[in-house]
Amino acid sequence: MKLDGVFVESDDENAALSSAHGNRRLEALGSYNTLDFVVRLRPDLHKILEAQGGKVSMRECESWDAAQAFSTYLHETIHWWQHVGTSAGLMLSFLQPAHAHMNRKRLDEILATHGPIKPLVGLAQKLSDANQQNGALNVVLNNWHDLDFFRQLAINPRGSVQSIASHPYFESVGHSYRMAIGAASWLISATLDPRYEALPHPRDWEAEMAALRERKAEGFFYGSPIEIPPIGMLEIFEGQARFSQIQYLYGASGGHLSWDTFRNRGMLSGVYTRAFETFLDFVEEEWPATTDDPIVGLFLLICDVALSPSEGLFLPMTDPSALIWSTDPGWRFIMLCRFAKEEGSAFRRSIRNYSAEEYWKVSQRLSDLMLSPSPRQLGEAVSQYADTLPAWIALMEEDRTFEYCEGNLPIRVLLGRFTRLQRDKLKAPQFFCWPGMCLTSFRQALDAKSVIALFSEHEALFLDRADRDVYPRLVPGRDEKTLQRLLDDFYTWVSMYEMTRQWLVEDGPFDYDYGWLTSKFSSTEIKDWADRAFKFGTGVHPDAFSVLR
Question: Which of 152, 185, 344, 442 has its CA 20 to 30 A from that of 19?
Answer without folding.
Answer: 185
